[in-house]
Amino acid sequence: MTADIIDGKAFAADVRARVADHVARLSADHGLTPGLAVVLVGEDPASEVYVRNKGRQTHEVGMHSVEHRLPVDTSEADLLALVAQLNVDPAIHGILVQLPLPDHLNSDLVINSIEPAKDVDGFHISNVGLLGTGQKSMVPCTPLGCLMMLRHHHGSLSGMNAVIVGRSNIVGKPMAQLLLGDSCTVTIAHSRTKDLPEVVRRADIVVAAVGRPEMVPGDWIGEGATVIDVGINRLPGEGGKTRLVGDVDYASAAEVAGAITPVPGGVGPMTIACLLANTLTACCRANG
Ligand code: GUN
What we know:
The chain is of the alpha/beta class. Helices cover 42% and strands 17% of the residues. Residues 96-99, 121, 141-142, 271 line the site of guanine.
């Protein structure tokens, strides 16, 4: 079997086009422009790339985009003061503080200082609790993008056996909540899981989110399973360049899977598209 490729790049372009359309109508009919503020502390190169892409795509869909770049030695008090100011700024509907923060800053404290209705990352403890209890919340962008691709590919996910490899707060745990919400039978596997290959092999849906390059080989994948690869790992490539690989060994997995997301061009583009969709949602909720 050769797997269908789930084209996240094309899907994300479609989501962005729909968001842009909605933004244009909001502006024409109600004089409203959704606004996203991104806060970057320090100069982590990977974060710089993410933040640049977010800013560009926010503009492209017609939203108001603000970037706050703070020095690496910014104090917690100064960062909290900036978030407090953004919380009450009527032109800002979404706030994203880029993670990871430098070690001297308490990420939980900073994230939980964001007004939950503006928490377009869905990381605030209130949004985590709302999602966990099946109530209306802001949903973390990466798992939301994965869910959208799975629904698009399968239609109903009801009764499917989903195995998530990785138990992070950002991807693994919210992914489990979302798949449960769609009536999957969900297992969260991790580095201590016994017989991990056997657990993964039983899955109809595998979501790999461990951050370890090509950790999941094709012989862990059940025949015909759908594989969603969240990993974005940078390895040294030819001529001093970096090569991006996922958490799944794509070549061997594509031989047995029914469908698979590539890296790059799978989950990655969907994450920013969902951030824009969340910002639009936050703006609409704020304005009734
Ligand atoms: N760093 C890497 N991915 C993310 C994300 O989705 N949100 C935030 N805030 N920081 C990140």
